[in-house]
Amino acid sequence: MVTHGHLTTLSLSPQGLFWGLAAAVGAAAYTLMPVGLLKRYNARLVTGWGMLFGGLILSPILILQPGPHLTWPIVLGIGYVTLFGTLIAYLLYLESLRFVRPTTVAMLNVFEPLSSTVIAIALFHAHFGWAEVLGGLLVLSTTFLQVLPARRPRRLG
């Protein structure tokens, strides 16, 4: 998808590559790190403390930035994204780790870009060529291959 069919070039900036890799590391971390905590504590408690610490750590950045002009639509939009796009989504994600193995949850995360791609094509008329479609199918196929049970080698003799 990032080559547009030309295997010798990337159509991705170094910053895009960095943030993509950082997002992958972050996704792995937030899937694996809370498993031990979730065995001892409720997912709401883990989510609440995680959001509190994250907010405290990032609050110096907020203080150093000029404040935007807030209107009611902006405040409501921020509230909606905070509540539904962050708090409830992460709470449900952590709650799922109590019932499903982290590796299974991580594999299901592969479908998030698929839904984003479908929305981008349907709503924003994004163009995807054969290379992007093939790349997406290859990514999805690895997810299905990881779910297949491993065959144990037969012993001879």
Question: Would you kindly provide a written description of the structure presented here, covering whatever features stand out?
Answer:
The protein has 157 residues and is mostly helical. Helix content is 71%, strand content 0%. It contains seven helices and no strands. The chain has helices spanning 14-32, 35-40, 43-64, 72-97, 102-108, 111-124, 130-147. The radius of gyration is 20 Å and the shape is globular. The model has no long low-confidence stretch (mean pLDDT 82).
Structural class computed from helices and strand pairing? mainly alpha
Low-confidence blocks of residues: none
Mean of residue pLDDT values: 82
Quickly count the helices: 7
Question: What's the alpha carbon Rg, rounded to whole Å?
Answer: 20 Å
Task: Please tell me what the overall shape is.
Answer: globular
Elements, N to C (H/E): HHHHHHH
How many β-strands, per DSSP?
A: 0
How would you characterize the largest beta sheet?
none
β content, as a range? Answer: under 5%
Distance between the termini: 48 Å
Can you give the helix content as a percent range? over 70%
Quick overview of this protein structure:
The chain has 157 residues and is mainly α. 71% of the residues lie in helices and 0% in strands. The model has no long low-confidence stretch (mean pLDDT 82).
